[in-house]
Design goal:
Blueprint: E1 17-31, E2 41-44, H1 46-53, E3 59-67, E4 71-78, H2 84-94, E5 112-122, E6 125-134
Antiparallel strand pairs: 1-2, 1-3, 1-5, 3-4, 5-6
Length: 136
């Protein structure tokens, strides 16, 4: 038997590149275990999420975006001091107002945004990741 010289590690993943996507869903999640995975993450309603955010619990917004002809891709926004630049980038891409008084994630549903996809490998394997969000 011979070796086939082809990399299939990213097979079935959304290819790298720039795409137009629609924000279709935002879920509010709280870290209830040790890792952000199926066993350690709980999806909650918005009021419970805000209440958790006001404690020492870690929270994120789990966003589903649809790329026509390619399918869905997911992006997580962590609501903590060091990651708020990514939240701002998302809101700007959605053209949703934000300021000192805060913002409303629900206004992002249905919005068209530009996304840049890269293939990255992490502890969970190889996957398509959003590296940038921008206005279209």
């Amino acid at each position: 038997m011979g070796r086939i010289d082809i990399d299939v590690t990213a097979a079935g993943k959304m290819p790298e590149g720039n795409y137009s996507a629609t924000v279709v869903k935002i879920e509010y999640q709280v870290l209830t275990g040790e890792k952000w995975n199926n066993e350690g993450t709980t999806t909650v309603d918005f009021d419970s999420w805000v209440a958790a955010r006001n404690t020492d619990k870690r929270v994120r917004a789990h966003i589903t975006l649809n790329v026509p002809g390619k399918g869905n891709i997911w992006h997580d926004l962590y609501i903590k001091e060091g990651a708020l630049g990514f939240v701002r980038q998302f809101l700007t891409a959605c053209q949703v107002h934000f300021g000192k008084e805060g913002f409303d994630f629900d206004l992002c549903i249905g919005k068209q945004v530009g996304i840049t996809i890269v293939i990255k490998e992490d502890e969970y394997g190889v996957d398509s990741k959003i590296s940038k969000l921008y206005k279209v």
